[in-house]
Amino acid sequence: GGCQPPVKLVNKECFLFAVQELFGYKTQGWRRALCIVGYVLSCGALLLLFYWKPEWDVWANCIHCSLEEADVVLLRTTDEFQRYTWKKVTWIDLSTLALPVGSNTQHPLVADTDSVINRAVMKPQLMVSHLCIQVQKIRYIWDFSVKEFKKVGSLEDSNTCHSIHHKFGAGLTREEQKIRQVVCGPNAIEVEIRPIWKLLFKEILNPFYVFQAFTLTLWLSQGYIEYSVAIIILTVISIGLTVYDLRQQSTKLHDLVEEHNKVQVTVCMKSDGCKETKSCYLVPGDMFLLDRKKLALPCDAVLIDGSCIVNEGMLTGESIPVTKTPLPLTESPMPWKIHNMEDYRRHVLFCGTEVIQTKPSGKGPVRAVVLQTGFNTAKGDLVRSILYPKPVNFKLYRDAFKFIIGLSVIGVFGLIYTVCVFVSHKKPAADVVAMALLLLTVAVPPAIPTALTTGTVYAQRRLKKKKIFCISPQRINICGQINLVCFDKTGTLTEDGLDLWGVIPSEGSRFQKVHKFPSSTPLPWGPLCGAMASCHSLVVLDKKIQGDPLDLKMFEGTHWVIDSHPLHTLTQITSHFPHLFQAPTEGIAILHQFPFSSALQRMSVVSQKIGEEQYDLYMKGAPETVSSFCRQDTVPANFLKELKTYTSQGFRVIALAHKVLNPGKDVDVSNLEREDAESELEFLGLLVMENRLKQETKPVLQQLAAARIRSVMVTGDNLQTAVMVARTTGMIHTGSKVILVEANEPEGSTPASIAWRLAEDCEANTEVHTNTEEKITLEEETCNYHFAMNGKSYQVIIKHFYSLLPKILVNATVFARMSPAQKSSLVEEFQKLDYYVGMCGDGANDCGALKMAHAGISLSEQEASVASPFTSQIPSIQCVPELISREGRAALVASFAVVKYLTLYGLIQFVGTALLFWQLQIFGNQQYLIQDAVITLLVCLTMSLTQAYPKLAPYRPPGQLISPPLLLSIILNVCFTIIMQTCGFLMVKKQPWYTMSHSSPGGNSTSSSTQSNVLSYEDTTLWPLSSINCIIVAFVFSKGKPFRKPIYTNYVFSVLLALQLAVCLFLFFTDIDAVYSGMQDIILQNKHLWLLIKAWFGYQPNSQYRKWQRMLQRDPNWPPVNTEDFAAKSTDEIYINPTYEHSDKD
């Protein structure tokens, strides 16, 4: 079938996984046979090549065809890596299942007519079967009606609320359950502990190690045994440690997931009633009962009857009990998720969370319908994000590879040179080949992979001492490049909980005197006290009150207590400490809750004073929301002004309201309509909570600012509070303007709009306090304005104003009310601007962003920390400068130093050996051994021990191996080596005592050593020269400041160098190191000199964000203030493809 456009396989819900393109292929017998012959003839080399390049494997074995006929599918990711993988297409055969009698071909397979299972069936002669592939643990089957692969293992999103109740409310039939079990697979999140041999193979078949094996084989055959063995031992240790680490991670993840696969649940069937089964047999659409008190949920399910309290700590990191309510039974034609808007999560029980308490309605036990099973669930997504992390695009490893290729090219020149010299002297072919390959391998040091890992291993050890744990060590190097850090606010910059600061009661539409907490006099009894005592979702579990910390603080302020009566699951009685003062009631019974939801920004309860007739409704929530439900005559006139006074000081303000319900009409409280109940309320007052800054916050942010690392706040809290905290912490300097960006979705005929307003508090703060810390302004980044926006605006900008996004991000500092998905998306957008992004959060809702960032640091000990590359046990942001800047930068500089050193050492040996080959001579094995093992190996292992410099430098270390300063330093050194060795080589010939020696390399003459008779004068001249050269280079490249402590603090290394130098000088008396090291350091490591050269050539950094900064500095109309713009075209056309398009006009 001709070449077709690839089909995209999208996993829409989860932004952590790359979109993949699919290509269909069909295996051909004769191609397969040819490949097998190729494997045999190439001794497995072809097989290895195919292992590295899976696409070549598919192209060699198969021919292109349509996806429908394919038996192999080639997948390609659409990110910048374009990685290929291939999957076999399997058949699911349903013909063995006893299908219901009388099921003719017209009869759907499962009752849910929308289900993909029906559309994916081939029905010739009732042979029912499915085409299926499994990608990253998720099963897809071929949908014949739309000709693409569709995900199975979840209920269709197109179901309405009514159809979920109707189709699945009574359970599935036995037959339908069987079909779904076969098609969807078991409901289990299985992470197999990877066998050690698999991990070993994967590690050993790395191209680095394959090249190393080739080099070592050659050296062993040349009788160069000692060093080869030393390298083999080191490599084995390095591979062993890596495999051990991977195995530990695999086991840890396996144990984390395993216990949820063995839960017992009660499933109800249509005709067979209810029975208990293992959770792995659950299928989407099953109806099960939540009859036990505690249950770890084995799948994602939607609640259809009764309500329950769930601990979602596993997914959010915050162990706050959440109340779940049943899915409403409405006739709306919209799909159920859209019908319930953002609140659909209130009806969903997520896999991996724990049901703490169930509250049945009158109709029997609490019931739920399975939505998703296995890896499609919320927990499955978390596990998959850990199993298949987004690959880190870091130049160091790619550059190291390019370096090795560059060295190999030099080696190949050496090989040609050797062949020419030896053939012209008519040497036997075997010698020619051996010597030529020897020179090739001298140029490429086999210790590079090992040396690169030592630096990170040492850094990991140092971080561990500072209580920072790391699960992917190669990320430590990336930390050295970070120039922007996103901080979560609550629990990261500020203390975890809120403290109750005071209450401002309102009577007769006037605010009264503030009642501060803690105070000696308790809050007097009244509707306000009643609201604080009963308007919350606290529960008593194991004799302890649990719930939202905010509710808890509010409740503790009243000094009441909660009794949960086991008889009435609905009633919680809040009774008083009688000794404080007499309250007119002995308690309040909570009869019904309308739970809090972030979309509605309010919660309310219906309660009844014990021994009284009337019902009370109390409401609490965001002040603007609550005041809109109140009778306007009860809301004080200065309400907004008062509110602003507190929010602008960084307080969190909550409003309370109350209404008496008439018990005549509203008899059944549980059937109350929320809309009717929540109206015409009386405004009671404001509750003011404060969120204190952690003490380390300010100094750390100042440190980062001084090091020119940008700080950005990304929080779920509201905008006013966030801006205030940003000002207090110094993220926004005194005297800087804050521009609030508000973007609105298109409504009716008005297109999407974006408005820029100056935050009012800017004018008040313009008298600048010049104190010393404020002086750390950044020369190039002096922007005296900052953008702030909330998640809703961010979403609209991405959708309708994408071309403005880079301009905004370059100066945006505060992002408030951001959802977890928006946090991840923000990190990704920053990365597109070439920022290296660090993210610091308390694990919870930051999981996705922590995974997405170049370096994610989780401050929580929750399981969510499994998802983040770094976890700090000390829950403060002090770890950010520690990790990023100090250890990260030191490790990066150390890796560079080691690579530079190894390159030069290879080239020094190469030059020496090449010169000797000219006379058909070679260094002795012991000579190589001293250079390789005694000098180089020890240098590589100890060079990285230098610790990080305590103060942060205001610039980053170079991030690319292949950059002018670095290459120049290597080229000048190589020139120096060539000149020095050639001079030595030629000068020795001029000496009166010189005689030509005629030992020929090859055969056994290589084993004669320095101790035997003089091999040749050239040899004994070049060897000490090159050895001392190696030592000098090691000294020069292990520069200390500004990223590492000075070299003399690394005692082991310094002593070693001194000893090595002494030994070499003893062997060969010379004194050229001082001159040399001076020359090197002045020219190459001189930052100021480089800056001068850059300015002289007019060089400008080419990172995207730098380009935008330069452009915006020249733009007189930026930033816009107090203006409003509209999206030009209709929404669907303007969804610009995510490469920045900017015309010259702007």
Automatic annotation (TrEMBL):
It is a multi-pass membrane protein. Residues 262-386 form the P-type ATPase A domain. The chain crosses the membrane at residues 30-52, 204-221, 227-246, 403-424, 436-459, 890-908, 928-945, 966-988, 1050-1069. Its EC number is 7.2.2.-. GO terms for molecular function: ATP binding; ATP hydrolysis activity; ATPase-coupled monoatomic cation transmembrane transporter activity; metal ion binding; P-type ion transporter activity; polyamine transmembrane transporter activity. PANTHER family: CATION-TRANSPORTING ATPASE 13A5-RELATED, CATION-TRANSPORTING ATPASE-RELATED. This is Cation-transporting ATPase. The gene is ATP13A5.
